[in-house]
Request: fold
Amino acid sequence: MPGDGTPWDHVPRADDVLLRGFEDEPALAGRSVALIDLLDRLLNGGAVLAGDVVLSVADVDLVHIDLRAVVRSVTADTPVVW
Amino acid sequence: MNAYDDAYDAHDDAYAAPDTGRLSYAYAVGRATPELEIALGPATGMDGAPLRTVAAHGLAAVVCDVPEAAYGERALRARLEDLGELEELARAHHSVVESLARGATVLPLRLATVYLDDVRVAAMLRDAGPELAALLGRLEGRVEWGVKVYADPSAAASPSAGTTRPDTPDAPAPEAPAESPGRAYLRQRRAQRTARDEAHRTAQEAVRRALAAAAEYAEDRVTHRPQQGELATGSGQNLANEAFLVARDRSEEFRAAVEEADRGLPGVRIEVTGPWAPYSFATPVRDPAPVREDAVREPADAAGGREEDSRAR
Reply:
């Protein structure tokens, strides 16, 4: 980000404007992001690419299922009402 | 065609992991532009490793070295099953993607996408190039916003919502004559049912309004599963958990319109999160999701037992 890093002096003007534009946005920074919102996106979203991937979550059914159990776990006595 | 291809082809079929003990963890793909290099900025990857780009065919993947001992298939599999480790990985991944997305258009990759080496990353860019380029074009200038609708009956029953409280008419007056336990039970059950029906209708209305408001500004939409379980945050029951792809410069309007949607609806809460890197829209495009057409469908459908992602792969 401009302002908090070092190598910004050489940034061309056009890029600088571009970056300042993004800077204006309130960002979802660090710990303020709820883990469950993050997992919704990182475990269900994100491009899954072919090729020689050592491991991508999408390919790991067991892990995926375990995680979903954590994320979705509903106790037996609280059925979905809606 | 280039050094990457040559190297890749030379090793085709019987390529073994180089004996370096290093793997390439990939975060995102963008166009090979100065903006992307700049967006790397001072950000660091897993365990503080420096980020770099691997470029091929006009595209560039942002990667960092990771030790095989911790990121090889066996190790990573074990780590992903530990919620604490999963959170660490997820936040580290997110922090890089977030930095990149602020300075360039990027396609976030799914968590834990690890290649044997940069040659393999370049090969991926070569093989998936046209599709990646198409996805990037679609995401340019756009951000993701999350919209969650909660029903929170305790809020509906608060004094401020008193007159709309559905069970109020059935509540016994202080001087009411004693009634039999059976009758009292039935009355109470009826009141509960009425309250629940009322809350259900209100929540349906909130979901309908929120989705309709979002559809005014959104270009695409992905439905996530309503959040429940030990990780679910916030009070009340999550009824709808949607992601919308919105032009960056319409974000404020989008947010204002959606947050407005629960006005006058007691016991309902709308939560907007973002802007996010377009995680939910980084999967291959099929037909654009019907942002408008079914925006007013019944919440029973909107909230109940659906797939994680309405554009199921």
Remarks:
- Residues 181-215 of chain B form the longest helix (35 residues).
- Chain B has a mean pLDDT of 81.
